[in-house]
Amino acid sequence: FLSTTSKFDFLKRGSKDYYEIRFRVVRLKLSESTYECLITNLDDNFTPNDLKELYHLRWGIETSFRDLKHSVDLEYLHTKESSQIYQEIYARLITYNFTMRLVGQVKFPKKKRHWDYQVNVKMAFRLYRRYLNDMSIDIMRLISSYILPIREGRKFERLKFRRGFVGFHYR
Q1: Strands (E), 18-66
Q2: Most buried residue among 63, 91, 144, 155 by CB atoms closer than 10 A?
C-alpha cells in the first residue's frame, strides 16, 4: 500500500533512474458484492469491459506459471550456482512443454457424468518422470486414467507454507 503522501525524493528528476509513468485504476464489478481492481498503463481507448476480456485471456498464462511453480517444482531450486540454476530451469521447461503436449493429445472416454472432466496435470508430470525411467509403459493410457472434475467457480484460500533452499548434499 502506498499512501498518497509517500515521498520519492530519493529519485532525482532528470537522472537516468527517473522516468514518468502514468497508469489508471479500473474497478470491475464481478458479482453483487465482489469487485476487482485492475491497474493498467493502457489508455482510455480500452473500456473496462475490454480490460476484463484482456485479463481473462491472460488466465491460461497464469495457470501455466502456477503449473511451472507447483506441479513441475520450479518454486524451489536445488542449487545456488547460476549455471546450474539455468540448467534446472531449462530442464523443468522442457518437462513442462513435453508433458503439456502429451496432455493435449490425451483422449479419455466421454461418459455421461454430472461434471466435465480434465486430465490431472500434476499427476501427468509424475507419470512423465516415471516414463523417462521406463519407456515401456503406455504413458497416454496412464495419463488418461487420472482425470479430475471441472468445477466452475470454486474459490477458497489455499494455505501455502514456504520452505527454503535445501541442497542435495543436506538431504
Answers
A1: 24-29, 35-40
A2: 144
